[in-house]
Design a protein that fits this description.
two-stranded antiparallel sheet; alpha+beta; 8 strands; 6-stranded mixed sheet
């Protein structure tokens, strides 16, 4: 689990100490998931599958599945968090196949931002269609070490990029990290990427949402999970799956 240190927009102009955040245990006090009777599967609209349905929540989270599902699993994740990557790679496929597909469970991911490089990545995974958010995030998770290595190997250049005008900072950082080429190979053109990274209002909103929501909900690190709005004491699939079943996904 990666510990969250409040990310301020001033960090985009201040010297940055770059390094992989330490992993540790959560300080969240789990309130437990709701309990309920078994819930019957809910059919998707004709000709569709719930696993292909993506909506954006009012909190700027990206929801896979039935937006009105009676069981709502929500994760705060950082694209730079190794534990988040492990969950995405090992648990999310089963979560989608066994639970989201039934219409009983939806899965929402919200970004918690752990630095300017994380903010650039969070901006880029939002740069395409709503439906591309999760596949692009999964590509970052699957290649996380390779994506982050250039950033940590070029810390001085990254720090210099943060002194540029606001609409140039994340573009330069992404160029140093090879992010633009990485996303171009996955269907997001360089022009698209640069346009999104230059949108100061958009990336500030991502950072501000991260800070505000983390403070309001007591999210101190990633990954942190909620079921039906209640924070749970667990961040592995072995801990989460029984709680989904307890809530009625059985």
């Amino acid at each position: 689990m990666t510990t969250f240190r409040k990310f301020t927009l001033a960090a985009l102009a201040a010297p940055l100490t770059l390094g992989l955040a330490a992993c540790g245990s959560t300080d969240a006090e789990g309130e437990g998931a709701t309990s309920g009777e078994p819930i019957a599967p809910i059919a998707a609209p004709e000709g569709t599958s719930w696993t292909d349905v993506v909506t954006v929540s009012e909190s700027d989270g990206y929801i896979i599945g039935n937006p009105d599902a009676p069981i709502k699993l929500m994760e705060y994740a950082s694209l730079t968090c190794p534990a988040c990557a492990a969950f995405a790679m090992s648990a999310v496929p089963e979560l989608k196949t066994e639970y989201v597909s039934t219409g009983r469970v939806s899965y929402e991911m919200r970004n918690q931002i752990h630095g300017p490089h994380d903010l650039a990545l969070a901006t880029l995974v939002r740069c395409g269609t709503d439906a591309s958010f999760h596949p692009l995030s999964d590509q970052v998770f699957a290649n996380q070490q390779a994506v982050l290595n250039p950033i940590f190997q070029n810390a001085e250049a990254v720090e210099q990029s943060l002194t540029l005008p606001e609409n140039q900072r994340l573009i330069r950082l992404a160029e140093i990290g090879g992010f633009i080429d990485f996303f171009a190979a996955r269907g997001l053109s360089g022009d698209q990427a640069r346009t999104c990274l230059a949108d100061v209002e958009a990336y500030k909103t991502i950072a501000e949402n991260s800070n505000t929501q983390s403070q309001e909900l007591g999210v101190s690190g990633t990954p942190t999970f909620f079921i039906n709005g209640r924070k749970i004491d667990g961040n592995s699939w072995a801990q989460i799956e029984p709680l989904l079943q307890q809530a009625g996904a059985r």
